[in-house]
Amino acid sequence: MNQKEIKKIVSEMTLEEKAGMCSGKDNWHLKSVERLGIPEVMVSDGPHGLRKQEDKTDHLGLNGSKRAVCFPAACASACSFDRGLLQELGEAIGEECQAEDVSIVLGPAVNIKRSPLCGRNFEYFSEDPYLASELAKSYISGVQSKQVGTSIKHFAVNNQEFRRMSCSSELDERALREIYLSAFEAAVKEAKPWTVMCSYNRINGVYASENKKLLSDILRDEWGFDGYVMSDWGAVNDRVEGLKAGLDLEMPGSSGVNDEEIIKAVESGRLDESVLDTAVERILSRIFAYWENKTNTVFPYKEHHELAKRIELESAVLLKNEDQLLPLKEGKKIALIGQFAKEPRYQGGGSSHINPYQVKGAWELLNGVSYAMGYTLDDSAAEELAEEAVALAAKSDAAVIFAGLPDAYESEGYDRRHMRLPEQQNHLIERVSRVQPNLVIVLHNGSPVEMPWEKQAKAILEMYLGGEAVGEAAADLLFGKANPSGKLAETFPLRLEDNPSYLNFPGDGNTVRYQEGIFVGYRYYDSKKMAVRYPFGHGLSYTTFEYSGLKLSSDQIKDTDCLTVTFKVKNTGAAAGKEIVQLYVSDHTGSAVRPEKELRHFAKVALSPGEEKTIKMELTKRAFAWYHPERKDWYAASGEYEILIGSSSREIRLSKTVCMENTSGAVQRIEANTVIGDIVANPQAEKVFSKYMDQLWKAFGKPKSDEMTRQIILSLPLRAVRSFCYLPSEELNILLNALNAAVNETARSGR
To answer: Does the keyword Ribonucleoprotein feature in the UniProt annotation (predicted)?
Structure first.
């Protein structure tokens, strides 16, 4: 149905019908208008699997849902660094939506992992906005290729569960743009999700649900979003103000309470009816886009279960593998220990909780291995179970302990209090390590954990929350039927206190201050050269890779150019494997305070033993730029940038420098309060100011070799020349004009 036809339908709707169209019928359905042919459609949770409820419905996962395939959660799938794989995942979710008559799937969730404690981190992709956005683009494209919509969420700066419905996230413009909005931006611009879900929280004091800057100025006017904005469930504060700001659909319905507020506002003149009409048009456009492309699809359980396994095989991260203990050898005495070996934890709690098609533990799938429970999730019978496990480990050739976080440790609705595993598990690992040197730890968790036993374990395999096939994937990886190829999408710090948000998370309940600014995750750890347990992008393989031949298309570019980067990767081991190569950019211009390096591209490459491939990556201005609040735009200064190619943020294999020329003019205007040090740092401005600098030295009566006097002069504001050089205000204005002309010339020439 075209826009003209939709406008005609809206023109025939009553005020009551239009107001009603802007809220849900119940938890999961939008309203119909039978007389005008507007059908009822359904939305459903499901970033990593469909959670369709039919009887007792809720939005927190408290009640059951129809059986579906539970794919790996985003904490796991992000570690695949595989755009194509996320596209396949999206296509599968889209097929399932068609099979179950679901028009919109509520996902993907791209909020940044600011702190390891956020209770919902398992649903989010990464601490890095570029990685999160790239994977979100692929997922959205996959789902929507099946004529089913997505609702990218939670827009925006929703990085904790504590008081999430009222707390205000307080942050500066650079952090907002470079970290928290950037994860959404490319996904919205390029993948064009049908809907965006606004978050619960306030942003610098304004609720996201009525934040015009967020929902209209940025989302629609800057990024060109043309779908509709829906609220998170219960996120509406003032329905009329939300509608004015750009919030089209309230979910769930308020049994007509807020619909009546809209009607009153139109009738009183508080709300222009055209604003309501526009919201209804947006909603109807997506309803009919789905309805006119409905297909009779059968839910392909078995095929999607196999896809879930393949995604987990590509996503699991081999953190450590001393003496090549893994893969384990067939015929050896292997002890499997831990409740998760039988009953794996494969998903998180809350609104994304899936009723799975099929779940098996690794122990069920492996022949010839012994088993001991070792611990329970409720901490009962701890000593007896530990003794049994230690005895089994002592008489085995190797012990594999399946450890991790119980469901109650991480869920929607509350945050974690610490990064530790249950003490019973830490105690068990310590005891087993004393009798069995060949110790493997397999982890099931939605976010980083502390590892006091890391030195005692020879191998650590991070499975995250790997979906319903996580046990099958673990069995294949442990015995070498598959080669691990995932890499961490977040940093594992040594301890919670090292995290940059530690002193400001989760705030006082009214506000949470993002004092770390742009220094989130590896941007902080790498800039401080701080020791971490495992760095961003880290992950091992059962083979080895060699990097070589880095070339740049040019060593001199303009900010309007595209830089092509090529290099080679070779499999130098004996097994086929996949390597995730990462490109970081380091700004050496000194134009702003920036992280040591930032991820700007990545690729996953499959290589047979001895095979070598050439990788090509392209970088535009945005890869070099930072957000300049005064310019209200992205800015890449003239100067040198280093291109870094690595296997993680800490393991840089190749590097080259490129010099960029800025073509967009001066970054800022020199004013009376600009300090002299900033002026003389610009070569052209320094020439203009040189005679005044000489006068300042004479005024202070010190030789130019006097360091204290030099620092005092450099810290003076420009207006000080009136006092020390006796410069009239008229001449100061002439000087200001000359300095700004010089700065602009420098920017244009790139000198």
So the answer is: no
